[in-house]
Each structure stands twice: as structure tokens, then as C-alpha cells.
Amino acid sequence: MMNALTSTKEKRIMVVEDDRGINRLICYNLSKNGFNPESVYDGLEAQGRLSKEVFDVVILDIMLPGVDGFRICKTIKENPAAFKTFVVMLTARAESLDKIYGNLVGADYYLTKPFSVAKLMDIIGELIEIRDKKYVVQANSLECGHARAKDD
Length: 152
Hints:
By secondary structure, the protein is an alpha/beta fold. The protein is 49% helix and 16% strand.
């Protein structure tokens, strides 16, 4: 799935999950797939770090100590510096209203527990690949437009 456009080792992923076993499982698989994962177990810590750092993807539980995942997602999506950050909600909350609210606060994908680690890895890979292709195309368009402007 990953191609020349995507170098996974440069991709920072924050895993915000208070269940240490699930957090370790996700981080292990991200590392195994070449990503650079960082574990966070608390909503307040996640919110603090996300106000200072930008990640490619944030995997986010909803029910967290400190600050809930919905509020963190909304904060990420309101931060202009994080406009390319994808948010994958990973939660036991499977009610339709929770999914709708996740969409309203800006979640890019909503995955419910229990979940397939392979599916989560596929989702992350696809999101990054889509984003990278989009920005490479835009950068190429800008370069072509700039070159044409010089010729005029």
C-alpha cells in the first residue's frame, strides 16, 4: 500500500489510549510497519502536547481521563498548524449518536472496539497515502503554474 510518495518512518503518530495493553499493541504494530508512534494515556497530556506539536495521525479513544476524545479531536481540527493531521477515533462507544458527533467534531475515521489491528494499519496507511498524493499533486501544480508565469 505504501509507495514512493510515502516514507512511513517520518510519519509521527500519537496513540491516545488509556488502556496500556491496547496502547502497547497499537504502538508495536505501528513500529513494525515503519511508523514513529508515541504513546499517551491521558486526555490532558494529549491536549497539551497537541497544542505544541503536530502529528500526521492521532489515534484517539473517546473515554479518557482528564479530557475526552471528542474535545481533543475538536481542538486538533481547530488548530491551523494541524490542518493535515488525521484523527482516527478508536473507541468502545458504538452508538450512532457517538459516530455522528465524532464526524461533527472532525474525526476522519471512526473505528469501534473490538477492532482488527490489520484494519487499523490499513486505515492509517490509506489516510497518509491519500494526503501525501493530494499535497504532491498540489505542489506540482504550483510549480507548473510558477514556471508558466515566468515564461509569460
